[in-house]
Amino acid sequence: MIYSFKGHIPVIHESSFVHPFAAVTGNVIIGKDCYVGPGAAIRGDWGEIILEDGVNVQENCTIHMFPGKSIRLQEGAHVGHGAIIHGANLGRNCLIGMNSVIMDGSSVGAECVVGAMSFIKAETQVPERSLIVGNPAKVVKQVTDEMIAWKTAGTKLYQQLPADCHESLRAVEPLREIPANRPVQEDFYKTLNEFKKTES
């Protein structure tokens, strides 16, 4: 669902995928290879929202701001299921954990990891490569090279997902029985602990 608002029409690169059950409104610019999942709302009705290349905004996320503001999710930013970004900027290749809330005027630095269900207060400036958790969120340590490698691998899956969706996602009627030749899905991603074992 793509909506114009007061003369602003969203700009979405053809390589990106916005699910039909997502809503993108007004002054929104979405770069290459971005994924926007079902239930996500990206509301550029009061200000400008820019998603740089390779950003993913997963299911049921909300991105909005106060009037007259402009926010940017830099290249490779990864916004987990149910997160809310309200008037905040996200740095390159950062990870926002599921159901986190990032408030107005905040800035999450490049390659930061924000733990699931964290609350980042308004005007918080999070330094690059910080692991930040809690309510209110606090920096608990620096992100390791290993953590960033794992995060980057996960984001690459989401950067491939738009092409996969364009190629194979179709509305269908459900089957009523499990077919004998039901395809088996490939196991192609590891948890952080599994990733650490393969890297050591």
UniProtKB/TrEMBL annotation:
Database matches in InterPro entries: Hexapep (IPR001451), Transf_Hexapept/Carb_Anhydrase (IPR050484), Trimer_LpxA-like_sf (IPR011004)
UniProt organism field: Gangjinia marincola
TM stretches of this protein: none
Source organism, top-level taxon: Bacteria
Entry protein name: Phenylacetic acid degradation protein PaaY
Entry-linked Pfam families: Hexapep (PF00132)
